[in-house]
Amino acid sequence: MATIKTKPYKDITLEFEEERHRFTIAGRNIISVTGATGMIDKSGPLMGWQEKLTREDLMADVGKILTAEIILRATTIHRKKKQEAADTGTLIHKWINLYIEGKKPKIPDDEKVKNGVLAFMKWIDENKIKFLKSEEYIYSKKHDYAGILDIEAKINSKLAIIDIKSSSGVYNEMRYQVAGYRGAKEEMTGKEYDESWIIQLGKETGEFNTYLIDEAGKQHKKDFKVFLGALEIKRRELELKIK
Q1: How many CB atoms lie within 10 A of CB 113?
Q2: DSSP 243
Q3: Which of 76, 78, 108, 174 could bridge to 50 as Cys pair (CB 3.0-4.6 Å)?
Q4: Per-residue CA distances from 22 to 4, 5, 34, 69, 106 (Å)
């Protein structure tokens, strides 16, 4: 995998290693937006999802002799499903980026990826959207974190930051992610954005759900404070790990 170099500021070169999903500046590791929000507990919904997968997998073998192979498969199936979902999400994001760049990608053959793409196109059809940037590498000098911003656009004439999700649910952690992207982008540009959006694309249904975070910027400010708190937790955890 390649290392991508960008210059979010004239005096800073930000490097991103795709394979390791690692940001560095002059060889120094930089905490990512998702690395920071990864400190937020999501065990409740994830445990429920894992239990459901394990139960369904074992139920398919009711009446059979229980073997070590069956137990191992049932108790690790969530890892396989999680990776499959991540791979699908990556392909959806790549298609969207190509589309925004005007490269006219063909509709994917994979059913789940296609559904995500169709959901994205439906969202476009129902809004007046002018895309400005996609897959932009952002960095906050003030708070020393980096990330990849999905989309910057004008939606119905309002300047917006957009985060694309292909997960089955939308969680509070995602609000803090988009706040991190917006905070860095506002710092980099000196502009205040009107809105933040989370767009959930249905891999199973081909439909979309939208979550607008606005209220005159009040919601963003609250979410950004939480993001910065998570960032500090991540930073301290790394310090303790090193020691």
Answers
A1: 22
A2: -
A3: 78
A4: 10, 12, 11, 35, 30
Across 37-51, 53-67, 72-86, 216-230, which has the greatest mean pLDDT? 216-230
pTM of the shown model? 0.85
CA dihedral 120→122→123→129, nearest 10 degrees, is: 100
**Domain locations along the chain:** 3-41+91-242
The H-or-E segment that residue 159 falls in is strand 158-165
The region that residue 226 occupies, defined by phi over 0 for left and psi between -120 and 50 for alpha, beta otherwise, is alpha
**CA distance to 51, 55, 57, 152, per residue, from 66 (Å):** 18, 14, 12, 52
Q: State which fold the 3-41+91-242 domain adopts.
A: Trna Endonuclease; Chain: A, domain 1 (3.40.1350)
Is residue 182 within 8 Å of residue 193, measured between CB atoms? yes
CA distances (Å), origin 64, targets 58, 61, 73, 75, 106: 10, 6, 14, 17, 45
* Residue 132: predicted pLDDT: 96
Whole-number percent of the chain with pLDDT over 90: 67
